[in-house]
Structures are given as C-alpha cells and as structure tokens.
C-alpha cells in the first residue's frame, strides 16, 4: 500500500459523513481507472492539513485533511476547546453561528457538541444568521469565544471556520499558531477520542432582537427617513435581519432583488457571490433603474460586507470600497464621533487627511478587521474590500448591516437637502483633493505564480512608476506603524502601490492610488488622475511580470 493509499484508508475509516466518504470512494475508483483529474484531486486533498491561520479555516468542501469536512471541523473545534481550557476559560460560554452554505449547519452542530463535551456552555444559533450578529453575541452573552461557520463571499464549493475571542475581534497571532498546534495534536489521536454531548443551548430571538435594537439605535428619531432604495442579499443570510432593522428604524422597505433575496448555497445568479465581482450587482442595478431608486445596497452572503451603488453623471455604478469608506467616515466625523479613525494599509490615504482636519487621531493597520477591530479607542474603521465598522462598541468587526443603516441615514439626509451621493463625494474631493483608488488582481491556479511575482518585485523593485520616482518599502520587515506582513509598498509624489498575496483567495492583489491637489475644478483633476492611473496599472503589471 502506498503512503497516499494508507492516508486515504485511515481517513475513510474516521470520516463520520457518508456523503464525503462516497465522494472519496468515487475519486479512488476513477483514479484507479487512470483518471488524471481524480488522481490530482486525491493528491491535493491529502497533501497536508488545511492551514489554520488568522482567518481560521477556509477551503473547498470535500474529503481529506486539506479540505473542509466534518473531520477537519471536528479537529478544529477540539483544538479551540483545548486552547480555551489552557487559557483559563473552563466552563465559559462560546457562541456558535453559521451561514447557509453547504454543510454549515452540520459543522456548527459538530462544534457545539465538541465544546459541550469539553465542559463549555455552547450557545448554538438556531438558524443561519449573519456573521456580525454572531459577533455581536460574543459581548452580549459574555462569551469567551465565538465561532462562525462561513466562507463569506467565496465560491459555492467553499466553506470556512472563523474564530473570535472574547473581545469580539477575530483571532490574531499568536493565538492562531497556538490553536493550530492544538489542532495538530488532536489530529494525531483520532476523532473517537474527542468527547461530545448535546448539552448546548439553542439561541435565536434573544440574540437577533438585541442586535436589531442596537442597530436601530444608530439612527436618531429626528433624522430624515425619505428615500427609495434597492436591496440584494446576494443569495445570503442578510435579508431577514435587514428587514427587521429597517422596520425598527422607520426607513421605507426596499425594492428587493427577488432572484437573490433568499439563501441559496448554489448562488445561481452570480459567478462569485461578491458584490465587488463584475456582474454580481447587475440585477440590483437593473431594478434600481426600473424603480427610480436613489441608491442600491448589497450585502455579501454572510452580510459582514456592504456595497453601495448610485448615479454618477446619469449612469449607475457601484462605489469603490474606498469611496464608501470615505463617505461613512465623513458621516461619523460630521456627527462629531470622537476616537481613532482607522483603515488598512491597502486603503485610501484620504481618511488620514480627513481625521486630521477634524482633530481626530488616525491609525493604519495591516489588512483585515482582526487588526482594525483592535485599534484602541476605535471610532470608525474600514478596509477597501467593502468592509466597514461603524459601531465598534458593539461589533469590533466589519458589519454590513449597521453599515447599511448608516448609509440609509446618510442618503436620506442628503436627499432632504437636495443633494446626492455624487454631490457629497464631489464636496470631499474639493476639500481634501482627488484620491483615485483602483486594484489589479491576478487569480491563479498555482500559488507558486504568486510567490514568484513577490520575489520578482522584491529583488527587482521598480524605481519609477507612472513617470515619477518611487521609494520601495518591504513590509515583510515591519515598520514603526505595522508588524511584518508579506507585502511591498511603493510611494511617489502622487502615486502609491501596495502589492500583496490575498489571505483568503488564490490571488495576487495590487492596490493603486493616484492623488491630485484639492481644487474647485474637479473634472480636469479627475481626468488627469485617471490618465496617470492607467499608466500606473500598466507599469505595475509589467513589474510583476503578469
């Protein structure tokens, strides 16, 4: 028996899921008959364990240690339990939530049973709920940790396992490494050695009602409520909670994108269930045109992200993550919200200028809300990947539902004064200068391509981009502001580029910025910035060799 055959046999005997066993048997049969695709899939699935990191687990569903399945999830739950026990949380509450993806409910139940078997008090959500609602529950119920089974906006074949600690924020080093070590130890002893029981508490209305009340409290009674809007849940779990929050705030009901409003793990109308992906919000834009809406709003499938579309020069388009981030920041600053304003290193630098103008501190973080949510005294935080934290006291993480509430209040207020989203962005550009942000993303099938590109941009770093000299900074060595991360930063007089591998997808991402001074004549400034951006995109692609 080969080493791979031995691994497959051991896995098959341990797997409690008949569906995954059937997939494994089919792959083995096909591989034995010479199917190269099946052979490659088996080799990949059993090449090594799915890495547990600061994003928890995320990967394709299927058999084997490198896929998402009940064996891997059970080991993760037992590893988390061991970590919590070792850190003095014996008997503590742990909330467990899940989205509507394939096997999410099963993975969540396995987690609750294993936590209960380890002596914890699991609070298992009775239905699929948005990630920010579960994150809210950590502080609300006084939990030592939280788990959300979700792959957020990944393709339908994926699932994931997101872990939060008692402060309501996602895990960061060294907790991820320590949990991973305990998962590895559990994997050596086998699932039959992991105690389980069904003594967990099911939660639903108490959690949702408390979250809805908190979200509704973000809008003052005297604020305008008149607007027409479109909403899509992107086949995810956001709609029911969004409906409850909207009713509680007194805003009018949206025109709903019926084809995408109900949870569906197949995500049938989109290639990728991410509002940022081309075509994903086309149905929402079409409905917005038909209904004469002021704006269209989209959540991603687990509703921790939020996207906004509006009319610019007579045409509908989605705002970039930075544009919406700046709008929400300006709204908070105008309301006089004190505290630190923060964004990730790959987001627009405009927030730093705005915060200084209002006399508020600013912080730059690494990419991800596991860092943004931990900024001391956080008033507001965002990252360009349509993630916004507008109520950090309740949810120190990105929250697409409270962001939606803030957007509705902002748009209604603008409409009451005869202005639009486009008008407000013009005002901000006139005051703070044009900050044009864009992104280059290269999706790959071989991760070695990303590693090679990062090596190339480090060893042969460009000294000029878009016609101006740039200074290179390797963020792998860290800086005064940031801990080490696998990224390169290039800065020039009016250009800025960050190059980094994605932490959740097989992509190399390049975040580009061009700035122009504040001036009354915006059209010419934006035209010049767009031309410089085109040159910047071409130069960065050439430097990466992609």
Task: Break the fold down into its secondary structure elements and pairings.
Layout: H1 3-14, H2 18-32, H3 36-45, E1 57-60, H4 70-86, E2 93-98, H5 104-117, E3 121-125, H6 131-140, E4 145-149, E5 158-165, H7 175-189, E6 201-203, H8 205-216, E7 229-232, H9 239-249, E8 255-256, H10 282-291, E9 295-299, E10 306-312, E11 315-318, H11 321-334, E12 340-344, H12 350-357, E13 362-365, H13 369-372, E14 378-383, E15 387-389, H14 400-416, H15 421-432, E16 434-443, H16 447-459, E17 464-465, E18 468-469, E19 471-474, E20 488-491, E21 495-501, E22 507-516, H17 522-544
Parallel strand pairs: 2-3, 2-4, 3-6, 7-8, 7-9, 12-13, 12-14
Antiparallel strand pairs: 1-5, 4-5, 9-10, 10-11, 14-15, 16-22, 17-18, 19-20, 20-21, 21-22
What are the salient characteristics of this protein?
Alpha-D-Glucose-1,6-Bisphosphate, Chain A, domain 3; TATA-Binding Protein; five-stranded mixed sheet; 17 helices; 40% helix; globular
Structure in words:
By secondary structure, the protein is an alpha/beta fold. The chain has three domains: 3-203, Alpha-D-Glucose-1,6-Bisphosphate, subunit A, domain 3 (Alpha-D-Glucose-1,6-Bisphosphate, Chain A, domain 3); 209-431, Alpha-D-Glucose-1,6-Bisphosphate, subunit A, domain 3 (Alpha-D-Glucose-1,6-Bisphosphate, Chain A, domain 3, 3-Layer(aba) Sandwich), CATH 3.40.120.10; 434-544, TATA-Binding Protein. Helices cover 40% and strands 20% of the residues. The protein has helices at residues 3-14, 18-32, 36-45, 70-86, 104-117, 131-140, 175-189, 205-216, 239-249, 282-291, 321-334, 350-357, 369-372, 400-416, 421-432, 447-459, 522-544, and strands at 57-60, 93-98, 121-125, 145-149, 158-165, 201-203, 229-232, 255-256, 295-299, 306-312, 315-318, 340-344, 362-365, 378-383, 387-389, 434-443, 464-465, 468-469, 471-474, 488-491, 495-501, 507-516. The protein has a six-stranded mixed beta sheet with strand order 1-5-4-2-3-6, sandwiched between helices. A hairpin with a 3-residue loop joins strand 14 (378-383) and strand 15. Helix 2 packs across helix 3, helix 11 runs parallel beside helix 12 and helix 11 crosses helix 15 (421-432). The longest helix has 23 residues, at 522-544. It starts with a helix and ends with a helix. The model has no long low-confidence stretch (mean pLDDT 95).
């Amino acid at each position: 028996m080969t080493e791979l055959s031995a691994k497959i046999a051991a896995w098959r005997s341990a797997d409690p899921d008949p569906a995954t066993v059937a997939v494994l048997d089919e792959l083995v049969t096909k591989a034995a008959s010479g199917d190269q695709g099946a052979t490659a899939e088996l080799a990949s699935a059993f090449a090594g364990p799915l890495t547990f990191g600061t994003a928890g687990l995320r990967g394709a569903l299927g058999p084997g240690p490198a896929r998402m399945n009940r064996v891997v999830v059970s080991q993760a739950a037992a590893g988390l339990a061991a970590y919590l026990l070792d850190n003095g949380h014996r008997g503590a509450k742990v909330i467990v939530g899940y989205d509507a993806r394939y096997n999410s409910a099963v993975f969540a139940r396995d987690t609750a049973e294993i936590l209960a078997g380890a002596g914890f008090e699991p609070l298992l959500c009775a239905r699929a709920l948005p990630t920010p609602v579960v994150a809210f529950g950590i502080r609300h119920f006084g939990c030592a940790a939280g788990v959300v089974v979700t792959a957020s906006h990944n393709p339908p074949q994926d699932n994931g396992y997101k872990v939060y600690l008692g402060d309501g924020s996602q895990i960061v080093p060294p907790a991820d490494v320590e949990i991973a070590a305990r998962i590895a130890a559990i994997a050596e002893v086998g699932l039959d050695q992991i105690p389980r029981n069904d003594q967990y508490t099911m939660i639903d209305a108490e959690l949702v009602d408390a979250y809805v009340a908190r979200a509704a409290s973000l809008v003052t009674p005297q604020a305008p409520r008149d607007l027409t809007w479109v909403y899509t849940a992107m086949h995810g779990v956001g709609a029911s909670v969004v409906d409850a929050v909207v009713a509680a705030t007194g805003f009018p009901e949206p025109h709903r994108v019926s084809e995408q409003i109900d949870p569906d793990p197949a995500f049938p109308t989109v290639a990728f269930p991410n509002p940022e992906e081309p075509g994903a919000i086309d149905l929402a834009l079409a409905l917005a045109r038909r209904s004469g809406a002021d704006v269209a709003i989209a959540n991603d499938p687990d509703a921790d992200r939020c996207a906004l579309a509006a009319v610019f020069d007579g045409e509908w388009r989605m705002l970039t993550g930075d544009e919406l981030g700046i709008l929400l920041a300006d709204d908070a600053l105008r309301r006089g919200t004190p505290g630190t304003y923060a964004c990730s290193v790959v987001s627009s630098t405009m927030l730093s200028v705005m915060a200084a103008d209002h006399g508020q501190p600013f912080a730059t973080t690494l990419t991800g809300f596991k860092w943004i949510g931990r900024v001391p005294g956080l008033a507001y935080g965002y990252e360009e990947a349509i993630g916004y934290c507008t109520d950090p006291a309740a949810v120190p993480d990105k929250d697409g539902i409270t962001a939606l509430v803030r957007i509705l209040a902002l748009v209604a207020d603008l409409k009451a004064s005869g202005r639009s989203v486009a008008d407000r962005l013009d005002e901000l550009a006139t005051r703070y200068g044009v900050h044009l942000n864009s992104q280059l993303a290269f999706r790959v099938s071989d991760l070695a391509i990303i590693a090679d590109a990062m090596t190339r941009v480090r060893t042969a770093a460009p000294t000029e981009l878009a016609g101006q000299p740039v200074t290179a900074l390797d963020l792998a060595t860290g800086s005064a502001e940031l801990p080490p991360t696998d990224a390169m930063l290039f800065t020039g007089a009016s250009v800025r580029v960050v190059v980094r591998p994605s932490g959740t997808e097989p992509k190399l991402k390049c975040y580009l910025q061009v700035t122009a001074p504040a001036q009354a004549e915006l059209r010419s400034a934006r035209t010049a910035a767009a031309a410089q951006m085109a040159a910047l995109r071409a130069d960065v692609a050439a430097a990466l060799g992609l």
